[in-house]
Amino acid sequence: MIRGDGIGPEIVQATLRVLDSLRCGLDYRFAEAGMAALEAQGELLP
């Protein structure tokens, strides 16, 4: 999941709730994009 900026984090949280409710046993990998990524790693994209 790539959270991104703006409403991205809220959309990801809502999406995770829906996916988790399906109980499919999914494993998630998270990455930052946008300003959070720029501040953490010096690049806008993972």
From TrEMBL:
SUPFAM superfamilies to which the protein is assigned, alphabetical: Isocitrate/Isopropylmalate dehydrogenase-like
* Designated name of the protein: Uncharacterized protein
